[in-house]
Specification:
alpha/beta, about 25% helix, Glucose Oxidase, domain 1, single chain, 7-stranded mixed β-barrel, about 270 residues, binds zinc ion
């Protein structure tokens, strides 16, 4: 690569540099240039679903109007728990020595992904746990899950958002309500298998938690966190994704020492 620094050629040079960077063999970069972008993120508002023990998302309007000087000006404050709406669980959430949200390597938050659809099995069973067999079934149709994938799990529960009763089994709040949660999750044995035999980078699900609603010990969270695998929760629009051949880009708010945080996550097909 040559560098020219005359005024006229600087822009061209930067363009060529960017082009050669983006057109490298890395599939993530070329797909970002060419693909259709699908937003897997819910907006944060009053309806946003948080765990029954948490307050909701609060947006406080500070300014919204024309100033004395004639220009328009808007500014708000927001308040929110780390874990609610579309967000990431950093490994620190369930592992003392796990990565905090600012420490998760960016490579783990973006890259090729697959979708495993178990919505048929969850239709009549809100306590369903996604099993090793579900992944083997995906593999019989699509081939073995390659190394370093982001695994997205479609339970079909996304269609109930933001109705708490349908989405998570209860709209009650407080510690007592936690016992009434019903929604599907990932079986801890399957979480362990994905890490040990398929070397995954991250997982994501269209329910409030990677462990199912009736979980009391959060074994999938613990297993994933101990191996520094982040989990995306409350994913939107998984029904718009194919089984494979897309990439995911997930960028959580970089909260220093955070155990998780609101995340803008998109897929590029
Ligand atoms: Zn979480």
């Amino acid at each position: 690569m040559f560098f020219f620094f005359s005024k006229k050629s600087t822009n061209l040079c930067l363009f060529l540099l960017a082009f050669s960077f983006l057109s490298c063999s890395c599939s993530t970069r070329s797909q970002v240039l060419n693909g259709q972008i699908i937003d897997l993120t819910y907006s944060f508002d009053k309806e946003t679903i948080y765990w029954p023990t948490e307050k909701g998302f609060l947006l406080e309007k500070r300014a919204d109007g024309f100033t004395e000087k004639g220009y328009y000006y808007a500014s708000n404050r927001f308040q929110a728990a780390e874990h609610g709406g579309t967000h990431v669980d950093a490994p620190k959430h369930f592992s003392q020595k796990g990565h905090t949200v600012d420490q998760i390597p960016l490579e783990q938050l973006m890259g090729p992904a697959i979708l495993v659809d178990v919505s048929d099995k969850c239709k009549n069973d809100p306590d369903y746990r996604i099993s090793i067999e579900d992944f083997l079934e995906w593999e019989r149709k699509n081939g073995q899950i390659p190394k370093d994938m982001i695994i997205l799990l479609k339970t079909g529960f996304g269609k109930y958002w933001p109705n708490r009763v349908q989405y998570m089994g209860t709209d009650e709040r407080g510690a007592e309500a936690v016992k009434k949660l019903h929604f599907p999750g990932l079986h801890p044995k399957a979480a362990a298998w994905l890490m040990q035999f398929r070397f995954i980078k991250a997982v994501g699900i269209d329910t409030p938690s990677i462990d199912h609603g009736q979980s009391t010990h959060f074994e999938s969270h613990v297993a994933l966190s101990q191996k520094n695998i982040p989990a995306f929760e409350n994913l939107a629009h998984l029904d718009r994704l194919p089984s494979k051949n897309f990439v995911v880009i997930a960028l959580p708010m970089k909260i220093k020492d955070g155990s998780g945080g609101p995340t803008r996550i998109v897929a590029v097909e």
